[in-house]
Amino acid sequence: MNSIKNIFPLGFPWQTKDPFLFCAYHYDLYPKGNEEMGPAESLEGRSLGNDFTIKNGWRMYHGKTIPGFPSHPHRGFETISIANKGFCDHSDSLGAAGRFGNGDVQWMTAGAGVQHSEMFPLLNTEKENPLEFFQIWLNLAKKDKFVAPHFAMLWNEYIPIIKNTSATIKIIAGSYNKVNACAPAPNSWAANPENEVAIWTLHLEANTSFSIPASKNDISRTLYFYEGDSILIEDKTITPNHGIELISNTETIIKVGSKKAHILLLQGKPIKEPVVQHGPFVMNTESEIRDTMKEYGLTQFGGWPWQYTDNVHPKEKGRFAKFPDGTLVEK
């Protein structure tokens, strides 16, 4: 049985299917850092504050001194941020903060509303600071749109990783071969196993085969092939920078070409509710969007407790998470 529904080129951001709303892949070859944790190179010629064009291998995004995304609001969905390489400094309107990287994952439920910033501090002054970072938006069901915001850190040391001769599978959400991911946020669509939400990173060895097992139900399942030479699925040869939408309730065999293949898998039962999005707000109706914009204008979702909108933590600080209740975890 043919398991391929569609093959499509990857743009920026990547195309997703319900229950996912958005997936952005950031790969930036940042240079050495300066004392402010920004690039130790000239920023001349960049559209600072809106620099999404790759120049010399990297972008500043909305940052003007340090690359990244200064304070901005979210409501009605979750962000799952995977820092494969480099570091991200998180700060939010609840007073929570963290520095995560080198394989860590941050899972944040925006729910009723939160502001946060995500900056990429260039901590190395003696060598380059490469960044590989995914941000995934997972929708919330209508009944959970207004839950209290929630912030969790999935440390790389505790995320299940399965290694065999053909593959390394990192299980950020869902399960593989009866190995379960760390618990997702409590109100997440991923919290109910019946929704079969899975987020895996797959690193497949050259000249090998890998099997993705069939799901229980017919759900959304998409592969994002972002680095490698080629893969073969059935009779289709697929090159990097392509997405593959699959029929989920049948097994899929991936045959890898002459170079290691790097793939992100996103799957889940669709929520099948109306989606009305206005920038960082995702609700079910236009009136809810209008109410959200009004409320944010009045409350700023609790305001911004940090001195700078592009807040970063001290350079010497290691990986850590500070939660809204004051609990501090250092790695």
TrEMBL record:
<dbReference type="InterPro" id="IPR012093">
    <property type="entry name" value="Pirin"/>
</dbReference>
<dbReference type="InterPro" id="IPR003829">
    <property type="entry name" value="Pirin_N_dom"/>
</dbReference>
<feature type="domain" description="Pirin N-terminal">
    <location>
        <begin position="62"/>
        <end position="138"/>
    </location>
</feature>
<protein>
    <recommendedName>
        <fullName>Pirin</fullName>
    </recommendedName>
</protein>
<comment type="similarity">
    <text>Belongs to the pirin family.</text>
</comment>
<dbReference type="InterPro" id="IPR014710">
    <property type="entry name" value="RmlC-like_jellyroll"/>
</dbReference>
<dbReference type="Pfam" id="PF02678">
    <property type="entry name" value="Pirin"/>
</dbReference>
<dbReference type="InterPro" id="IPR011051">
    <property type="entry name" value="RmlC_Cupin_sf"/>
</dbReference>
<feature type="domain" description="Pirin C-terminal">
    <location>
        <begin position="200"/>
        <end position="301"/>
    </location>
</feature>
<dbReference type="Pfam" id="PF05726">
    <property type="entry name" value="Pirin_C"/>
</dbReference>
<dbReference type="InterPro" id="IPR008778">
    <property type="entry name" value="Pirin_C_dom"/>
</dbReference>
